[in-house]
Amino acid sequence: MQNQQEIIKNVSSLIEKKKYLNAKDIMFNYLKKSQNIKIGTKFYFTLYLIFDGLKETRNAKKYLEKCFKIDQNNHIVLNNLANIFLKEGNIFKAEKYYLKSISLKKDYLLAIINLAILYQNLGRLDESKKFYLKAIELSPKRISIYFNLSRIDNDFITTKKINYISNLMKNENIENSEMSHGYFLLAEHARKNKDYNLEIDYLKKANEYSFKSNLNANIQTLNYWKNIIPKRYNNFNFKNENKKNELINIKPIFIVGLPRSGSTLVEVLITSGNKDIISLGESSIFNGIIAKKFSKDHDNLIDLENVNNKIFEIFENKDLNLRNLIFLDKSLENFFYIDVIVKVFPKAIFIHTFRNIEDNIFAIFKQSLEKLSWTNSIEEILNYIDIYFNVIEYFKKKYPDKIYSIQLEELTDNVVETSKKIYSICELKWSEKVLNFYERKDLIVSTASNVQIRRDIYKYENKKYEHYKNLLKNFLVKYNWLK
Fold it and tell me: What is the pTM of this model?
């Protein structure tokens, strides 16, 4: 029989290939046959990696805690435990374990960056900056750190730093993701110098490198958004529809629409007035269940019992009790899955955020949204938006009493009345503390708006994107809604 080191070596190659179920079987077979053998930290940590890959957070945490029990001074274990606490929403423990990890290994770059991001998402920008600067000391050629720091300090990127970053991009063998961040920085510097043509050139390159940074996955997901779900969203068939639904009395709030449309602002307004409402953020629960099925099957059959079980499993992994919970979900792509969501949560309501569509296009294109494959070119953004218009109009007609549209311009120009309207839609009690959301110490925002959301609401800038309108001239004939 193989020893633990041999098992770990073999399983590690499976983990690299994302063959997590095969890896899990091998590990559990060894455990079954080795009941009297002492199991080491590396073995348990490998099990953690498997369950983390399977997105089974509860089991991943269990095996990390076994590692921690054996070795409480393992900086890698502490960092990964902090990651899990953060997923669970336990900010205090996440911070504590990141700090402990760094105290044990002062040059542990991964924990330093994780802590900088945590502080950034909490709005503790001075502390975030301190750890980003420490990360730059340790890894001065990692451009993504400069990019993150530039988002919390507008004055950080000087001409001297731009020249340094440009030289890195020309002379170093830099991976695509880092090149993407570099071009986003060059684009922002060109914008500050009012060289908008150069900015646009850099933005195009930034998005091209972003797409290439995860090429196979981006090709696959882009095909899904363009060619698969647009043909299925309105003709799902449902199995086990009449089975007992334990979720029938829950009234979740789903925010749907396009990125950069005011969705984060609506989210924090809602969660700032009622502590009982937990936000799952961009959980992509329904997309994760449905997209995975459609990558294998060619029918439109949705097993509602399976969907319900998956939802309970996800909430259990997050250590949340779904039966006694009012929750909010800001997975913007959920407008594709409204029929499924209504079957699972008959009392669900949907808040559709939107803004001036030209502004929205440019706001998406100018932002580094590396997890969204369709955001990396104007052509694909317009194609996705065209599909979005068709889908959202279809569901607004089908469910006029469930879908409520909130315009960003209206919200920012008349925040009191519009926020009251949102609270009325959600059947929640409004108070003035809703408007002081930016003072919250527990407000954690991990989207592109995490810095912007830390100040009072300001009036909508109508002419902010005038310099970019030429980008649309070749598409005016194709898309009537651009006119």
Answer: 0.90
